Amino acid sequence: MRNLTVIFAAAFMFALSLVVSAQYSGWTVPAGAKDEKSPLAATPAVIAKGKTLFTANCVRCHGALGKGDGKDSPKDDPAADLTDEFRYDLNPEGVIYYKILNGHPPAMPAFADKIAKNDIWNVVQYVISLRKKA
Asked: pLDDT averaged over the chain?
């Protein structure tokens, strides 16, 4: 029974590593990003500023509600649905920050040179506000 448990645990860890590596494949996300927290509280003003930046930079692919249905989103490989519950645990605040900062060329541009680093946290808070409430 112990051997079966060890085999099951090893298989589970392997499968989990495939999911995580696929999630971050091609993304420049530092190892500690998953634990990094926004320095900004999710106040109405922060979320409003994030929405303004999101509208100016992200809507064309992610759509107004973050569903991945923007006018420039390819139909055969759409932009990420930022409201998808599956992504919540895979994309905590720090991961979202680095994905916006560094992008995933050519599908998603990097915004490091377009949005101030501190303002990216506003976008992060707005993206999190789009998530379905549990």
From this structure: 85
Tokens of 35: 């634990």
pLDDT score of 112 more than 90:
yes
Helix axes 117-130, 93-102, angle to 10 degrees: 120
Domain of 31 in residue numbering reads as: 2-130
The CATH number covering residue 68 comes to 1.10.760.10
Phi-psi region of 26 (alpha: psi -120 to 50; beta: other; left: phi over 0): left
SS3 108: strand
SS3 content of the chain, % helix, strand, coil (to 5): 55, 0, 45
Domain count, the chain: 1
Q: How far is CA 74 from CA 19, 107, 110, 127, in A?
A: 23, 9, 18, 20
